[in-house]
Write a structure and sequence with these properties.
single chain; alpha+beta; 21 helices; 32% helix; Oxoprolinase-like; Hydantoinase_A; ATPase_NBD; Hydantoinase/oxoprolinase family protein
């Protein structure tokens, strides 16, 4: 049997599972089971049920599973619903600097909004005379009397020497508490924010540990021997034991799974990914094959948790419509699901008889939305999905495909209210719906200074066909739906890489500090089950915050196929490059390549002042042997070199491509193609750091090995 990767996505109503061929990435099967909130084992029962059913459907055995991961909304829901533990904080410090720790580790209760709160209690112990074990034990006894379930140990400069935090945690666990050191959650300076982040993490530890034990036991009982992985909020996965330490990393992991699918399955290089459900749409950005991150805010408090930058808008395939004064004034945020109404577009046309427009309030205090009521008294929601089907924008094989005739009948009273025909009414509904998405896209492009010419808009989720085809017709963006768009999130879980991020505050990091942080990140993902030969790391330095950051990721399995397997012809690679560059194949210059990566360049000339002035810029793309676009750049210089000349060539690139001014030097973003691997050397602020990272990443390069260096102008 083919080795398979299983991804499971636990939703509020249903738990979805997919099986993907580990080698070809072909989707083999998908199943959906009800989420088992009320079972004795909780949602773990549904996870095991979905995994068992999918193996049975494809006649696979537990031994065939080489990777199994699941995404969960439990951490997010716990914070939304206030299902959190009371946390006791033990602050520590010594000397004059330690006095500051008394105040900064006392973070008070954390308001989660919606009348929910994380309760905290605090104690501070001095380390001036060594570790005060008796005082810590007395504090733990008080915590028990105050119904504390989880303990945070937070020491001034604990990121430099965490031994005291670890000792407190040992004593707390001996007394039956869940416990975590603030240094485990973040290695960054900033005691108050680090402590607050650790408190949020600790508040969900007891519930997450309980669920993880049930899930792990169920999967082990199936006979699956590959380690159970959990989806992270940054689009990677971590081993379940790591989740038991840092459950905060799973917050917002649901939307992150869709981004992982866009990256790993749809191979989006530069794009905006729009995942559309029934109630809301999650919008995220990918640039140069990497998603964008931002610090998570919980209860209006900044934390040291980095999550994917995902913007959520209350419009989707099932959004309900508001009409006032003869015009459509809103689409969403309430949906047919919230109003407990069926979609008209999925009804039998014969059931939509003599429909009339009625007003409904999905929730108490809501404004009025429209629905249609039939002669039999049945009510149906009028939605963007219905509008898109009515206008013929939804192909029959799309997940959102419904009955256009049923939609047409439901839209007749809407059109009468608007004083127009049904097609115009449907267009107006989609126009209002799209107007909630378009400004978000424009803001993302402006915020990250993205080049619209390099971007593609990719739709995922079951409701994406309700909105994306209309965006394709009414904007200049390159818009399309992902393959298997309805299950892209679950596929993302199945294909996600083991990932971790390590950050430290360092001023002008040396080569040794860069290498140490990189090694720490690499060791972390290897420790969580990644195969050492698959691990890649990226290091970047933010001089404005003195923040050194290392990201590492790798696969749990070693891909054994050689570079020739799955390869496409040179003509097919050229076609892929032409599509990426939006250029005619005859206008593309190729030539620079390694064993697995090929560089293509096209010039684009724009004219102004009636053609009297013209400007030419180059666009560059990198395509691998399988025809997958790995990167797109504008105004990038291409240099070919060998291993023996690598350092000299990098020096030459820095001399030629840097931008010099009286006060500063802006370095180019450098990318080095080696074999089938693209090494990212961007994000460094000094020449010395660039050269150090080149030395670290390519220390084993052979003298005669062919390399290609791309330098993107700053």
């Amino acid at each position: 049997m083919t080795k398979i990767r299983v991804g499971i996505d636990v939703g509020g109503t249903f738990t979805d599972a997919v099986a993907v061929d580990s080698e070809s990435l072909e989707l083999l099967e998908q199943v959906k089971v009800p989420t088992t909130h009320d079972a004795d084992e909780g949602v773990a029962a549904g996870i095991v049920q979905a995994a068992s059913q999918i193996l049975e459907n494809i006649n696979a055995t537990p031994e065939d599973v080489v990777f199994l991961a699941h995404g969960t909304t439990q951490a997010t829901n716990a914070l939304l619903e206030g299902d959190v533990a009371k946390v006791g904080v033990i602050g520590m410090g010594k000397g004059l600097k330690g006095r500051r720790g008394r105040t900064e580790t006392n973070v008070d209760d954390i308001d989660l909004k919606n009348d929910q709160v994380i309760e905290t209690t605090h104690a501070f112990v001095s380390l001036s005379d060594g570790f005060p074990e008796a005082e810590v034990r007395e504090t733990l006894a008080r915590f028990e009397e105050e119904d504390v379930e989880a303990v945070v140990a937070s020491q001034v400069f604990g990121v430099d020497d965490p031994r005291m935090e670890e000792r407190v945690c040992e004593l707390a666990r001996d007394e039956g508490f869940a416990a975590i050191g603030a240094n485990v959650v973040s290695k960054r300076y900033g005691l108050k924010v680090r402590t607050r982040t650790a408190v949020v993490n600790a508040s969900i530890l007891p519930r997450m540990m309980e669920t993880s034990r049930s899930t792990a036991a169920g999967i082990e009982g199936m006979g699956v021997t590959s380690p159970l992985m959990i989806m992270r909020s940054d689009g990677g996965v971590m081993e379940i034991d790591e989740m038991r330490r840092r459950p905060i990393q799973t917050i917002l992991s649901g939307p992150a799974a869709g981004v992982a699918g866009a990256l790993m399955y749809e191979n989006v290089t530069d794009g905006i990914f729009i995942e559309v459900g029934g109630t809301s749409s999650d919008i995220s950005v990918i640039e140069k094959g990497q998603p964008k991150w931002k610090p998570a805010e919980i209860g209006n408090h900044t934390t040291f948790l980095e999550t994917l930058d995902i913007r959520t808008e209350g419009v989707a395939g099932g959004s309900m419509i508001r009409i006032e004064d003869g015009d459509v004034v809103a689409s969403g945020p309430r949906s047919a699901h919230i109003a407990d109404l069926p979609y008209a577009v999925y009804a039998d046309p014969e059931d939509i008889t003599d429909p009339k427009l009625v007003r409904v309030r999905p929730k108490d205090g809501d404004p009025e939305y429209v629905a249609v009521e039939t002669a039999d008294g049945d009510r149906y929601a009028v939605t963007p999905s219905g509008a898109a089907n009515l206008l013929g924008l939804v192909d029959e094989d799309m997940y959102a495909s419904g009955n256009p005739e049923a939609a047409r009948r439901a839209f007749e009273p809407v059109a009468a209210e608007l004083g127009t025909d049904v097609e115009s009414a449907a267009e107006r509904v989609l126009e209002v719906s799209a107007q909630k998405i378009k400004p978000v896209i424009e803001n993302i492009i402006d915020e990250y200074d993205l080049n619209p010419n390099l971007l593609e808009l990719v739709g995922g989720g079951g409701g994406s066909a309700a909105l994306l085809p209309y965006l394709a017709e009414t904007t200049d963006y390159d818009v399309h739906l992902a393959v298997n768009h309805e299950t892209i999130s679950t596929i993302g879980v199945a294909l996600a890489m083991v990932r971790d991020v390590v950050e430290r505050n360092v001023m002008n990091p040396s080569e040794e500090e860069i290498e140490h942080l990189r090694r720490e990140a690499v060791d972390s993902v290897i420790g969580m089950g990644a195969n050492q030969e698959t691990v890649e790391a990226k290091v970047e330095y933010d001089a404005s915050r003195n923040l050194l950051r290392a990201e590492a990721e790798g696969s749990t399995e070693l891909q054994t196929r050689d570079l020739s397997q799955g390869a496409v012809s040179p003509d097919e690679r050229l076609e892929a490059a032409a599509a990426a560059l939006d250029a005619d194949p005859d206008q593309i210059d190729g030539g620079a390549s390694t064993a697995g990566l090929h560089v293509y360049v096209a010039d684009e000339t724009t004219k102004r002042l009636f053609g009297l002035l013209s400007k030419t810029k180059s666009k560059t793309t990198i395509v691998d042997n399988a025809g997958v676009v790995k990167m797109k750049l504008e105004d990038a210089a291409v240099y070919e070199t060998r291993g023996e000349s690598l350092e000299r060539t990098v020096e030459r690139v820095l001399n030629r491509e840097s931008v010099f001014s009286n006060s500063s030097t802006k370095l180019p973003n450098i990318y080095i193609a080696r074999g089938n691997r693209l090494v990212d050397i961007s994000g460094m602020s000094t020449r010395e750091q660039v050269l150090s990272l080149v030395d670290i990443e390519l220390e084993d390069v052979e003298p005669d090995e062919e390399l290609v260096i791309l330098a993107e102008k700053p």
